[in-house]
């Protein structure tokens, strides 16, 4: 019997992100050839060819002027011809510090197959490894129910491993989580103080409490950083389960949920649609990336589609 217990103790807990799995994601992250596929604005030497607003650079294109653009780069001829302000874009080699904002609050402790919190940890870890793989500095902010952890972006395996250990610990803490002390707006406000101008910022969350205050912070982040949304969701959030009577509980109170109520089913589904529509519109307004991660699907599959994947050696040699 003791041997069986020891063997069982070594099995990963399904409600806690597996540390070995998070570390192992570094292999798949190296295959993301297009990462991070966004503009960089930080004037640092680096390994990317990316858009930069300035002078003495190689001209790339002209686009409509956006708030925050350098007025010295306005293309007055195009502006006069179109009667709409346009600015010139130049190309330069730039470094992009990667900052991952990981939501591990109480709402993430939910899932029909895998918990959103576990998927959030996997997405966050893969993004950190991907940043390091392209020789960028990587770090992040992890927000739990009662506290948060910040890991300064560094070009170091130690920094990424420190971030990953933090993800695993915050994931485990959700087993005994209390009422959240942080709102999404609080998270974004803190992130604004932490993010360096020119950083590539990924917000990994279910965005369940996205509101007007959050939008204000996101607009401020987008002024100085390259913003990306990683939306974690579960199939049970898109529609209620098969019509029946279900006993549901929040850990303290219990009630009966009638999923056969057509009005309730419609309102529930519409709530998810409204949230995803708001995220999509925000991403368009802010020129931000938007990736959707279903808890039932592998994380690396979504990232490979978004950033491209290196072909296998067998295919290259054929």
Widest sheet: strand order?
Answer: 6-5-4-7-8-11
Helix content: 25-40%
Spans of at least 5 consecutive residues with low confidence:
1-9, 38-56, 313-318
> Class of the largest domain, according to the CATH hierarchy?
Alpha Beta
What characteristics describe this protein?
single chain; 6-stranded mixed beta sheet; disordered N terminus; 3-stranded antiparallel beta sheet; Rossmann fold; 11 helices; alpha/beta; disordered C terminus
Word description of this protein:
This protein is of the alpha/beta class. Helix content is 40%, strand content 22%. It has 11 helices and 11 strands. The protein has helices at residues 2-9, 19-29, 76-82, 116-133, 157-173, 184-194, 212-224, 235-238, 262-285, 299-307, 313-317; strands at 48-52, 58-64, 86-94, 98-103, 138-143, 148-154, 200-205, 226-233, 245-249, 254-258, 289-294. Helix 2 packs across helix 4 (116-133) and helix 4 packs antiparallel against helix 5. It starts with a helix and ends with a helix. Mean pLDDT is 85; it is low at 1-9, 38-56 and 313-318.
Structure summary:
The chain is α/β, with parallel strands linked by helices and 318 residues long.
Any chance you could write out the topology, listing elements then pairs?
Elements (H helix, E strand, L loop, with lengths): L1 H8 L9 H11 L18 E5 L5 E7 L11 H7 L3 E9 L3 E6 L12 H18 L4 E6 L4 E7 L2 H17 L10 H11 L5 E6 L6 H13 L1 E8 L1 H4 L6 E5 L4 E5 L3 H24 L3 E6 L4 H9 L5 H5 L1
Parallel strand pairs: 4-5, 4-7, 7-8, 8-11
Antiparallel strand pairs: 1-3, 2-3, 5-6, 9-10
Helix pairs in contact: 2-4, 4-5, 6-7
């Amino acid at each position: 019997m003791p041997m069986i217990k020891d063997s069982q103790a070594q099995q990963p807990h399904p409600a806690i992100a597996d540390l070995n799995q998070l570390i192992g994601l570094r292999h798949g992250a190296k295959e993301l050839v297009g990462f991070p596929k966004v503009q960089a604005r930080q004037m640092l030497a680096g390994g990317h060819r990316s858009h930069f607003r300035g002078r003495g650079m190689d001209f790339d294109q002209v686009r409509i002027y956006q708030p925050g653009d350098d007025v010295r780069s306005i293309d007055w001829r195009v502006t006069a011809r179109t009667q709409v302000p346009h600015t010139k874009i130049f190309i330069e080699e730039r470094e992009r510090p990667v900052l991952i904002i990981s939501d591990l609050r109480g709402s993430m402790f939910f899932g029909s197959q895998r918990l959103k919190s576990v998927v959030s940890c996997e997405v966050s870890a893969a993004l950190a490894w991907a940043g390091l793989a392209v020789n960028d500095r990587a770090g992040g902010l992890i927000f739990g129910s009662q506290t948060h952890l910040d890991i300064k972006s560094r070009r170091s395996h130690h920094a990424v491993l420190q971030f990953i250990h933090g993800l695993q610990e915050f994931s485990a803490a959700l087993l005994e989580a209390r009422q959240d002390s942080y709102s999404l707006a609080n998270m974004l406000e803190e992130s604004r103080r932490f993010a360096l101008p020119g950083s590539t910022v990924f917000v990994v969350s279910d965005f369940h409490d996205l509101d007007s205050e959050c939008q204000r912070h996101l607009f401020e982040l987008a002024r100085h950083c390259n913003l990306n949304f990683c939306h974690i969701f579960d199939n049970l959030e898109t529609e209620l389960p098969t019509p029946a009577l279900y006993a549901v509980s929040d850990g303290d109170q219990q009630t009966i949920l009638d999923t056969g109520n057509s009005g309730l089913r419609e309102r529930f589904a519409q709530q998810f649609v409204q949230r995803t529509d708001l995220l999509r519109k925000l991403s368009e307004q802010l020129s931000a990336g938007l990736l959707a991660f279903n808890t039932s699907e592998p994380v690396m599959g979504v990232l490979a589609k978004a950033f491209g994947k290196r072909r296998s050696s067998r295919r290259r040699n054929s």
